[in-house]
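Narrative progress, year one. The postdoctoral researcher (J.K.) led the effort to move from monomer predictions toward full complexes, under supervision of the PI. The following entry was the first complex the group processed end to end, covering 906 residues in total.
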Amino acid sequence: MAPESAPLPETLAELAGMDPNSVPVMILMSLIGAALIGTLMMTNTALAGPWAKRKITAAFTDRIAVDRIGPFGLLIIVADSVRLLSKELIVPEGVDRPAWDLAPLLIASSALLGFAVIPMGNGLHLADPEVGLAYVFATASMASVGLVMAGYASNNKYSFLGGLRAVAQNLAYEIPLILTGASVVIFAGSLQMSEIVAAQSQTLIGPLPSWYAFVNPFAFALFMIANLAEVGRNPFDIPEAPTEIVAGYQTEYSSVYFVLIYLGEFIHIFLGGAIIATIFLGGPAGPVLPGIVWFLIKIWGVFLFTQWARSAVPRVRIDQLIEIGWKGMLVLSLANLLLTAVIVGVIA
Amino acid sequence: MSLEKPTTPAEIGVTEDGLDYDALADLLGGHVLDRETHVNAEGFVIRPDEVQDVLSTLKTEAGFDHCACVTAQEYDDRYESIYHLRKYDDPTQELSIVVPSPKDDPHNQSGARVYDTADWHEREAYDLVGIDYDDHPDLRRILLPDTWQGHPLSQDYNQSQPQIVTLRENANPLQDDKRSEDDPDTMFVNIGPHHPATHGVLHVKTVLDGEQIADIDPDIGYLHRCEEQMCQNGTYRHQIMPYPDRWDYVSAGILNEWAYARAAEDLADIEVPEYAQVIRTMSAELCRIAAHMLALGTFALDVFGDFTAIFQYAFRDREVVQNILEDLTGQRLMFNYLRLGGVAWDLPEPREEFFEKVRDFLDDLPYKLEEYHDLITGNEIFQMRCVDTGVLSPELAKSYGATGPVARGSGVDYDLRRDDPYGYYDELDWNVVTETGCDNFSRVLVRMREVEESARIIEQCVDLLEQWPEDDREIQANVPRTLRPDPDREIYRAVEAAKGELGIYIRSDGTDKPARFKIRSPCFSNLQTLPEMSQGEYIPDMIASLGSLDIVLGEVDR
């Protein structure tokens, strides 16, 4: 376990033969580590956005999807990148310029920040602060600010409605999300990501590991549902709702800005997957295969789940969404928190 | 309150063998100036300023609760509006109210206060023919732009007059925010004409109060292609039949063709051979299945919110129907298969192969429908979204002239295939489907159950066709090469198309082309109910209601 627990910048410094105690070296190595992890997640997103999403949806709907360019149509990723980047960037009249430009950047980057504290196995762990989990939730929530900025600055009524819906939805679902996350913190007794992962490394019954998904399936289910709302996928894709408000907050975005928003959404789904993998599915733990592979399998599993929901589940209405959030999820997650606290208090 | 049961209004004038028009004329007394004989019903000529009196008497006392259509036309010496009245209980009881108005200043009283449906029909008459309706709630153009000069179906219309109107002259919709005046907190949103959920180019002017609909006004006409005028310029025998395919163009072509065929055949007294009728019945029901599959898929698209599984499944299964229709007609979209007096050609050879293909499809259908029920109607979120939203009460449905699955979803038991039989329907064993929920969910259920009934009809047709003696396979009656119906015959005939009562009014003038060709589009009347359905509801419910109305803009705008 020793090499895996050392944060990535230190490992890099040792690999490069530099002094891990010097501040400039650590800054440099942190940047390199961040670039590495960022690239890894971006690669995942590139795979997911133009290719996997199409293939998965096609499989659900009896179609074939992309198969013309490259093996399994994989080169569509390149083709789509070129296509999207070569589109004209249309800036509508009357948009609130700095906010309108910053929103896509904020949406894309906020989710990426969260990966800094996620232990991905094989030493891919940029930082391990004691407030790890709180930090992840904080960065993930920053996207809401981006959504409001996009919706408000676009000078478009559909965007405006989408932005308002996004805030209402995130408010209603982030509280249950974090409360459910807090129940894990009670189990693990720490907010530190490495501690949470380590706490799940025992076995529960027989070969079953003591992942919190098995220890507390109720919390796991709650978290999965709240996460769907958090990343805005069916049945909770209200902020975009193509058939109602065109594309919500992203209606006026084109070209690179559109790519950034799209990218942000997918990174957000993967960040949701990463949080679930870390606090409920034992992080990078798993037999035979290396940790990073297991970690990727888990986050892709969550991605698959979101795509499944998207293909098969109708969208709820905005008032129903809020009702489910405040009257259902919040109460259930509070009950879960209370129950966990009692159980932990009695047993421990 | 009297305990005595009032005489049911439908009884006046009803006799064993049809309507007693004398009794109806007595009921109206001095209002009736003259009586005309149309092929489908008698026409009572009344004074232009007594329309409301006459219509409300007929509605309340004689039970004519269905104003199917308002036809307007211009003669050499007068303008004329015809209100085609029928009964929801028995649409064979028909009566035309003919309202002439003077040539120099054409105006007559509006019937919109009696029948809500007359609102849009009269707006269309005003727009295209140029008759003014007094006391109309909102008389403005409906199909053409507000700035249009002249009325295209009137006789003195100058077709070469340029119709160029700059944006500056036109009312600019962006100029003011069009907030509702009594509530400054509302917001005006244009939903459409380019919007993912409007099923074509429909423009819904919406005033929102938060997320709720304060007021909506469907704006149609973006797909107006002068279909009526084009039909007036075509010969009965050959040149009109291709047009109906283009009204409701989502694979309901043969149903539309049948509407024209039925009207024209009755106008010219053409008998269709029985064998051809069976083929027509089968192909029409195939079209209905294809159209309902599309309705189901797009409704799912509206509620699920994306091109999801159910949309693709519906299209996958519709594809099978399309292939069968392609084998039969040679076309996938614009079939042009029916002819006056029959069909274009017999079933494709080898017949066994064709029958097997149809049977395979029918055998698979129950499993497919079960799959749909699992995915759609059994889904709790779907039920949450659709039950008790977009409520249309039976009374409103009747008043707005709603027909087809929209009316049957509101519990109005009205299906022309049974009530006004044509083709081979009355020989076959099938049921009219109604649901009493009056909401979006009921309308979807009606369509899904109608697919089952259509499958039953097709199955019986296939059996019949298979056993049909080979020397009796007459597909076409003897029809003169140039058809010239007798002059001044007028007819209104309707069939049960995929969306409801698709009626055609034709007036002949002795030439080989109709003097007036009027299309009563079911979607046009059904769409009128949208504001009633979605007042006070959320945007998503309005979108769902729109989807459940299953409009095709090609038919709304014609």
